[in-house]
């Protein structure tokens, strides 16, 4: 399943994405965490500010699924860690969207880059 162009546009224009990976039971959502998100090549990406130590990141990698809410949308999603060259355009998207933030340097640094997740909608 993929995001619709309208969903991606709305998410890309917003700054309110909340991520809630499943808890250990695989059915209960964790506490929603507000995080930055970017859209690159019709895909949605997020990063852990605290890198792979971020609690939501650890849960997302372990459970591989959960829910996100953003721009008035709520979607069941899957989480996929990514690495490699895709991080360069993701960095550029973060620089474009969050240029004025004092946190930008950390979000395009090695710690956060190591905790990059692709979020895809899933059928439930």
From TrEMBL:
Pfam families reported in the protein's UniProt record: DUF2255
Domain of life: Bacteria
Protein name according to UniProt: DUF2255 family protein
Organism, scientific name: Mesorhizobium waimense
